Amino acid sequence: MSLRLPRLITMLLATGVTLLLAAILFSSLPARAATERLDYPSNDGWHYTTRPSPASTGRVVELYVDRDFNEYERQHLLSAMRQWNYVLNGFVQFRARMLPDDPNPMTISQIRRSGAWVVARVDSRHPVAHSGEGRAALAVTTGNRGGFVYVISDRIGNRDLTGVIMHEFGHVLGAGHDGSGLMAPVYSAAMGRCIDQEAVALVARAQRLPINQLNWCEGPGVSPNLPMARATYSDYRTPMAARQR
Ligand SMILES: [Zn+2]
Known about the structure:
Radius of gyration: 19 Å
Bound molecules: zinc ion
Helix content: 25-40%
Low-confidence stretches: 1-20, 28-35, 224-245
Structural class: alpha/beta
Distance between the termini: 52 Å
Strand content: 5-15%
Number of strands: 7
Order of helices and strands: HEEHEHEEEHHEH
Shape: globular
Number of helices: 6
Strand order of the largest sheet: 3-2-4-6-5
């Protein structure tokens, strides 16, 4: 008995700390994330453009994040949100909160009806991982003005979760698939490293946003006003992991 109690306390404390951390993480996103400097790793020459943000704040896309995501995964979710918020420059903005504990189907349907998105952590036993292109997917996004982003956690392996989630958030924002870059249908670490001009253009078209007031990432040798060179990326493709849809 004497051994069990301290262990229980430790466990409770650990859980409490994790929840608290998550609460801080998801509440600490500044209202104007667009004005935040992106701490993007630029040691390989990739960087985000820095167009000024307009004065008014645009539409908010609400995300309800599954409590099953661990701390590491939450950091990647946050990074994906931050990068989209940055490139969208205040015109559209993701805001995340934790999904209620044990949400009942009623809560979920209310969330969807409100136009919000549930970001759910599932594994490959989940039905979504067994139907259609979900069979080979790392993540699946379903819905239109509200829906689900399923992250199939046991298929992510050592892939960059931030890139996978940024791709899915592109779908949430109305982008379809593109031949290259972040919105290519097949995952690659190189193409998913940041939100490129083509991905931003797809979202701008879907959301009717002025592309010349948005940001995107640029790589070494890529001219700001030219489409990304497609050939450069084709070598990085790994046909193993069709991402979704
Ligand atoms: Zn996709």
